[in-house]
Glycerol-1-phosphate dehydrogenase [NAD(P)+]
Amino acid sequence: MQSVHEITLPLKVIVGHRVVEKVSEILPPSVRKVGIVTGELTYEVAGRRVEEALSPERKVVVWKTPNAMVDSAVALAGRAREEGVEAVVGVGGGKAIDVAKYVAKETGSLMISIPTTPSHDGIASPFASLKGTGKPTSIYTKTPYAVIADVEIIAKAPRRLIMAGFGDLVGKLVAVKDWALAHRLKGEYYGDYAAQLALMSAKHVLKYHELIASGSVEGVRILVEALVSSGVAMCIAGSSRPASGSEHLFSHALDIVAPGRALHGEQIALGTIMMLYLHGDSSWRRVRRILRKVGLPTSAREIGIEPEKIVEALTIAHTIRPERYTILGENGLTREAAYRLARETGVI
Ligand SMILES: NC(=O)C1=CN([C@@H]2O[C@H](COP(=O)(O)OP(=O)(O)OC[C@H]3O[C@@H](n4cnc5c(N)ncnc54)[C@H](OP(=O)(O)O)[C@@H]3O)[C@@H](O)[C@H]2O)C=CC1
Ligand SMILES: O=C(CO)COP(=O)(O)O
Ligand SMILES: [Zn+2]
């Protein structure tokens, strides 16, 4: 019997100028009660506009979440259930969107993703990285019903957040290599279409790195489209496999040994240089050159993490998700090997 592979994709993706208000027409008319998950700043940036666009016709409740802790998400899901919301709109950065995805899943509501920053590829994926789950990796929640990316708003996001999205995407160069390796060595399911889609998002932003680094609206549009494409790759694969390999394991390990020091995508950028080197891929130098050029950190000093912590993270990375085989292997790196790797790639 053939195995069944079910794919849920976002129904609509809107990328453009002044598109936030389209949320009202995208939601099916039958949806009468809507919850908006946003943040203090992002409410001012876009949340209020979303509220105003929805309010005339629907009952709207706004929640400003201070963090992406699983406890906050569980509490909000309870309130959303009491209110009887039928759709949850996440307006903000990764924090608001991840919490909104969780609330939508728990309440069986439609989820709409309205990113105000292109900081990672969770904007169109069903995965949420909530804190306090006991694991640093993402959990499966709900595929956004729609993604509305207003490039004017996103282009005004802090530059660091924009370039973090670039870093997250460059990581796919490694993630797909790890996936293919796991397929060859361990017989793991490998979906070439999903892998190629994720890979294309990395190649696309590398090609347009100058435009993206310029901070122009045009560059932001390219970045957002690539983030959506990587998110869709995860939807197709049904896991974050095409988008997360050993470079993500390194970043997750850093979140344990040096929490809150750098952005997700910045850590991925650093991990990508080292993991490409481990794969024996000579493109690591070119990738490092481009990362430098666009202003992403390529060394421990630039990312603000002690060399010792970088080495420690490298030695524990393989323990984070043992079921997902990567170039780090089952036993990971010794301290000596980790040190050598970081030295030879100029990270420390
Ligand atoms: N689902 C996934 O696949 C992934 C999820 N993550 C998660 O995403 C979160 C990080 O996301 P990230 O977007 O970096 O951070 P946040 O959502 O925490 O946003 C960072 C800060 O930037 C502010 N901000 C957002 N957009 C704008 C804007 N346009 N203008 C001015 N300020 C803005 C936010 O305001 P405010 O205070 O209003 O929120 C917040 O203060 C983490 O919780 C991380 O775990 C990380 C990687 C992958
Ligand atoms: O960040 C992600 C994809 O870019 C999600 O990865 P994880 O599933 O490893 O948390
Ligand atoms: Zn990521």
